[in-house]
Design goal:
By secondary structure, the protein is an alpha+beta fold. The protein has two helices and four strands. The site of zinc ion has 8 residues, from loops.
Length: 78
């Protein structure tokens, strides 16, 4: 876990942490180079009560190693 994730999981009640983690795992960052999608949580971030569809985040792809802007996608219920 990253510093911010540790901070959140230490300070907040377990129920909130579960919510935040679940929500962060449904926000996906897709690499435009290789198409790999990883959740915000996996990338070391958190995203909660945020409605930022279409936003672009600068991040590094762990598959192809490219640092670039990736679009943030919400993964709806299956
Ligand atoms: Zn990639």
């Amino acid at each position: 876990m990253t510093f911010i994730q540790k901070l959140v999981t230490t300070l907040l009640p377990d129920k909130w942490v579960a919510d935040i983690q679940a929500e962060s795992q449904r926000w996906l960052l897709r690499c435009p180079t290789c198409g790999t999608a990883r959740s915000v949580w996996e990338m070391g971030g958190i995203r909660y009560k945020a409605r930022s569809k279409g936003r672009v985040v600068y991040a590094m792809c762990t598959t192809c190693g490219q640092r670039q802007n990736m679009s943030l996608e919400w993964q709806p219920d299956e």
